[in-house]
Model the fold of this input.
Amino acid sequence: MGDRKPFIAGNWKMNLNRSESVKLVRAIAERISDQPGTDILVAPPFTALSVVKDAIGSAKIYLGAQNMHWETGGAYTGEVSPAMLVEAGCTHVILGHSERRSLFMETDEMIDRKARAAVGMGLIPIICIGETLEQREQGRTFQLIRSQLDQSLKNFREQKAMPLTTILAYEPVWAIGTGRTASPQEAQEVHQFIRQWLKEHFGSGTAEKMRILYGGSVKPDNTKDLMAMPDIDGALVGGASLKADTFIQIARFHAE
Ligand code: PEP
Done:
């Protein structure tokens, strides 16, 4: 984890209506006031962003969206622009989640455009990458991760400028929602590879400051071991973020 501040993010996916969302974020807000050493974020569905923002009030919880379009506006039925997310109170946006890639045909090129647009609007992107089980079994994990980094961060790479606040999330597809977590060592290997890639392209100062989250069946009982790894700086949590108790236990991994 180094000197980087831990970052625990809850991706609520297409779950919870507005009142359930408010109830959950209130329960989290009431109990994380003693977590100054950890950054906490929730990413509700679009329809609940504004009410969750209001419910957060002055609590130290960041608000993220789960996706956005790269254009500023226009004839893009069903899409939401970066400015709309800022207006709804978001500070962050998750980009390139594996469900977006596999179910909605998102490509690295689209993620690259979205990352550029997010930063242009002052949003902090949380950019997801990760290999499938088939790719891992074929020994192609590192090749795939390199390719996703090269392509999804192409604009930052070409500009030789990576905003330090940008967050990367390593989410092996085989571990998402399956109950099968990467071992801390398996995750660390890939996180170390990602940090090395950052160093190659942006220098060691940037590589050491940027946070790399792990995601894939993170639970209260595996968080501490994952967070003990030198290059794992936080967690992107799906299923376990939908219950206040489990999410708070994860956020309090120090105490568990
Ligand atoms: C996710 O969707 O980003 C995720 C990691 O899900 P889960 O924690 O349920 O595996």
